[in-house]
Amino acid sequence: MIACRADKNCLRISSEVERWLGRLVVQAAPELSVSLRNPQNALFIEVLSSAIGLWVRESAWGGLPVGSSSDAVCILSVGFALPVASYLMMKRGVRVHWSYF
Q: Around Cβ 86, how many Cβ atoms within 10 Å?
């Protein structure tokens, strides 16, 4: 649990929010355990003036936001650099069309 209070008028400090929500998680799912000092997964909590946001950060390959990249054409030749560059573009989410001669 990692708490961030955007609204400092909240009656509780961040560590109290973390403990409170950890207690709720354990009550709701007894098979789970909560470690505030050495977590394997982190649940992020943001306390705003009118809402509370919860999210989990998932690791992925990385890349560009969906819909922001276009197609690309890669010309394959004798060199090694072009396939590597194409792989790196594909890793970022660009759709690569291959052309060779």
A: 19
Task: Extract the tokens encoding 98.
Answer: 């291959």
Cα 34 versus chain centre, distance: 20
Q: Which fold has domain 2-56?
A: THUMP fold (3.30.2300)
Say how far apart CA 47 and CA 69 lie, in whole Å: 33
User: Does pLDDT of 96 surpass 70?
Assistant: yes
Q: Where are the domains positioned within the chain?
A: 2-56, 71-100
Contacts of 46 (CB under 8 A, 6+ apart): 3, 4, 5, 6, 52, 53
The predicted model scores a pTM of: 0.43
- Residue 60, pLDDT above cutoff 70: no
- How does residue 6 score in pLDDT terms, banded at 50, 70 and 90? low
